[in-house]
Amino acid sequence: MPSPVSFALIAVHSLKLSLGDRSYAILIGAGLLADQESYATLPSAPLAAIVTNDVVAPLYAQRLESVLKQRHREVVQIILPDGEAHKDWASLDRIFDVLLAHGCDRKTVLYALGGGVVGDMTGFAAACYMRGVPFVQIPTTLLAQVDSSVGGKTAINHPRGKNMIGAFYQPLLVVCDLDVLDTLPERELSAGLAEVIKYGPIADPAFLDWIETNLDALRARDKDALAYAVRRSCEIKAWVVGQDEKEAGLRAILNFGHTFGHAIEAGLGYGEWLHGEAVGCGMVMASELSARLGLMPPAFVDRMRRLIERAGLPVRGPALGAERYLELMSVDKKNEGGEIRFVVIEALGRAGVRPAPDTLVAQVIEAHSG
Amino acid sequence: MPSPVSFALIAVHSLKLSLGDRSYAILIGAGLLADQESYATLPSAPLAAIVTNDVVAPLYAQRLESVLKQRHREVVQIILPDGEAHKDWASLDRIFDVLLAHGCDRKTVLYALGGGVVGDMTGFAAACYMRGVPFVQIPTTLLAQVDSSVGGKTAINHPRGKNMIGAFYQPLLVVCDLDVLDTLPERELSAGLAEVIKYGPIADPAFLDWIETNLDALRARDKDALAYAVRRSCEIKAWVVGQDEKEAGLRAILNFGHTFGHAIEAGLGYGEWLHGEAVGCGMVMASELSARLGLMPPAFVDRMRRLIERAGLPVRGPALGAERYLELMSVDKKNEGGEIRFVVIEALGRAGVRPAPDTLVAQVIEAHSG
């Protein structure tokens, strides 16, 4: 537990994601999960459901239920099996079944307590249950705090592709409690750092410098460093999503490293590598592609690979073979007319989306896998 | 087949459903399905999918595919088993599987060719596939033309309740071809008339008079009568949905007769009675409830029952027992805080939503079932 002094040092930052009448606050600070004040702006409703998984539930579900019981007459807990392998229809249907069994109605508030998988599934369940109920994101992993809980992308996986079935559906509120990161396994912390690192090359060179300087503090879970990393990541994400909620263009840059990363995840079977690990390695490949397209100097690839390695992430992809990578990438949602489209760095702090010749992509894969 | 003269008599009506940048046209006329002109305003895309069922496919799928092949490089047909019993996740997943197998991307257009079940499922599939692809409604039943294809309510059923899982997701275009009603079975025509009749008491007393006068012509499939019925129904629906897309208030009036009707459908098992049959009988009960609440005179109940009976619809509900009806109605989406809410007629042409005492509802059910 952090000392009371460190509590006092960390202010609660409240960002706003601006989407007209679907705008919402992102709260970042210590001790927010069990603080009644965090939820003060939410609409009242007799029923609420906490959706979480069997790893997070023993740590935080009871504490959250206690505070929510001051707002709701009845709080149902829905505990799903942990892991990307369970981000499927069966889990979603279990949520629906419990909600219906408890007479949950259109006003019932769903609280997603967990990492990206819980957040994506709870958000999609909220989007579909009775054609839409309110929901709140309470991300418990670094990855979810800096990326997946913000922006309203919700989904489940399909055997033929990751996040293929989903909705754009915004939460009412995001509560990033930095204290919950204390219980995060080392490997998950590193996975989250992949998405933090991502924001540098696509949007903010100064942030990339800051991450390089503060990486050791971040891995040591220094609260001030984490607070800044979460805040700056959410600021950039909110800025991008506020301009392009449904990924008509700009938003796709947030998928830097994800095209290669999704192929790794699908190729190995969901859950073998963590999403952030696959994205880390995918960013090395996407940086290499940017260099081979003549957009960035080779030194940029080295810089990215070194940083990703220092974050405790894999920098070489599994030996699936270039052909298999290409096949897996051919079902990516960014694709158009059968052409694979990649997020590349066009200049430090600026990304774009473009196709690339298969032979070039194959060279990139060969250079950074196996 | 209607004579060329009757073709000339029926103009193509184009209504507009106004929802800002999600506004769309509803085309009503003869011969529209196979007319290239009907689709002229749609965005171009290399791939398209026709989603239909095994009853409609042999009648119209080939004709539609031929005309769409002039717009799209490849047109995939997805033929689902017919009937409300198949409005479930298994059918939805089959759509996703075929779309993914064919490399369908975010620009792929889905065409819903069929009745309410096909339209609701295709719309929901379009809402979820890659978080949303464009879709077109080509309703082939009277019920779908006058009600379910317009307004963007999409859903599948859950074993615990009808339409519990879904989305508000608007089509790009609705094409109501009056000619396809020629092949509609008698029973389905009557089911569609239930939704036509509905619009009278909730919104337009003059339309109720018109239906009473023209009911025989409608049942004889007179094209002019059908054209007017479809047009006036869509006008009223578009007016309601344009004010309240997501059913925050007014839109609920479109569910007149549906609370009782859904209980009948769920109680007998989906597909035993047609949706329109259950709604027909449900409107008799909801009229009776309106009378017993002192809102309408008893003569109104007789008027509605007579008209619904003349339309070829059942006017007595199955003998499930009032308790079972109440239990089934307790999962209705309109409910709030565990209280069942009913659409009632407050004055001819004006409806409202309100709770009612269980004992009164039980009396209504006893009077009109068994």
UniProtKB/TrEMBL annotation, chains A, B:
<feature type="binding site">
    <location>
        <begin position="140"/>
        <end position="141"/>
    </location>
    <ligand>
        <name>NAD(+)</name>
    </ligand>
</feature>
<dbReference type="GO" id="GO:0008652">
    <property type="term" value="P:amino acid biosynthetic process"/>
</dbReference>
<dbReference type="InterPro" id="IPR056179">
    <property type="entry name" value="DHQS_C"/>
</dbReference>
<dbReference type="InterPro" id="IPR050071">
    <property type="entry name" value="Dehydroquinate_synthase"/>
</dbReference>
<dbReference type="InterPro" id="IPR016037">
    <property type="entry name" value="DHQ_synth_AroB"/>
</dbReference>
<dbReference type="Pfam" id="PF24621">
    <property type="entry name" value="DHQS_C"/>
</dbReference>
<comment type="pathway">
    <text>Metabolic intermediate biosynthesis; chorismate biosynthesis; chorismate from D-erythrose 4-phosphate and phosphoenolpyruvate: step 2/7.</text>
</comment>
<dbReference type="GO" id="GO:0009423">
    <property type="term" value="P:chorismate biosynthetic process"/>
</dbReference>
<dbReference type="GO" id="GO:0003856">
    <property type="term" value="F:3-dehydroquinate synthase activity"/>
</dbReference>
<dbReference type="GO" id="GO:0005737">
    <property type="term" value="C:cytoplasm"/>
</dbReference>
<keyword id="KW-0170">Cobalt</keyword>
<feature type="domain" description="3-dehydroquinate synthase C-terminal">
    <location>
        <begin position="192"/>
        <end position="335"/>
    </location>
</feature>
<dbReference type="InterPro" id="IPR030960">
    <property type="entry name" value="DHQS/DOIS_N"/>
</dbReference>
<feature type="binding site">
    <location>
        <begin position="82"/>
        <end position="87"/>
    </location>
    <ligand>
        <name>NAD(+)</name>
    </ligand>
</feature>
<dbReference type="GO" id="GO:0046872">
    <property type="term" value="F:metal ion binding"/>
</dbReference>
<comment type="similarity">
    <text>Belongs to the sugar phosphate cyclases superfamily. Dehydroquinate synthase family.</text>
</comment>
<keyword id="KW-0456">Lyase</keyword>
<keyword id="KW-0057">Aromatic amino acid biosynthesis</keyword>
<keyword id="KW-0862">Zinc</keyword>
<dbReference type="GO" id="GO:0009073">
    <property type="term" value="P:aromatic amino acid family biosynthetic process"/>
</dbReference>
<feature type="domain" description="3-dehydroquinate synthase N-terminal">
    <location>
        <begin position="78"/>
        <end position="190"/>
    </location>
</feature>
<dbReference type="InterPro" id="IPR030963">
    <property type="entry name" value="DHQ_synth_fam"/>
</dbReference>
<keyword id="KW-0479">Metal-binding</keyword>
<feature type="binding site">
    <location>
        <position position="195"/>
    </location>
    <ligand>
        <name>Zn(2+)</name>
    </ligand>
</feature>
<feature type="binding site">
    <location>
        <position position="258"/>
    </location>
    <ligand>
        <name>Zn(2+)</name>
    </ligand>
</feature>
<comment type="function">
    <text>Catalyzes the conversion of 3-deoxy-D-arabino-heptulosonate 7-phosphate (DAHP) to dehydroquinate (DHQ).</text>
</comment>
<keyword id="KW-0028">Amino-acid biosynthesis</keyword>
<feature type="binding site">
    <location>
        <position position="275"/>
    </location>
    <ligand>
        <name>Zn(2+)</name>
    </ligand>
</feature>
<keyword id="KW-0547">Nucleotide-binding</keyword>
<feature type="binding site">
    <location>
        <position position="162"/>
    </location>
    <ligand>
        <name>NAD(+)</name>
    </ligand>
</feature>
<keyword id="KW-0520">NAD</keyword>
<dbReference type="Pfam" id="PF01761">
    <property type="entry name" value="DHQ_synthase"/>
</dbReference>
<feature type="binding site">
    <location>
        <begin position="116"/>
        <end position="120"/>
    </location>
    <ligand>
        <name>NAD(+)</name>
    </ligand>
</feature>
<protein>
    <recommendedName>
        <fullName>3-dehydroquinate synthase</fullName>
        <ecNumber>4.2.3.4</ecNumber>
    </recommendedName>
</protein>
<keyword id="KW-0963">Cytoplasm</keyword>
<dbReference type="GO" id="GO:0000166">
    <property type="term" value="F:nucleotide binding"/>
</dbReference>
<feature type="binding site">
    <location>
        <position position="153"/>
    </location>
    <ligand>
        <name>NAD(+)</name>
    </ligand>
</feature>
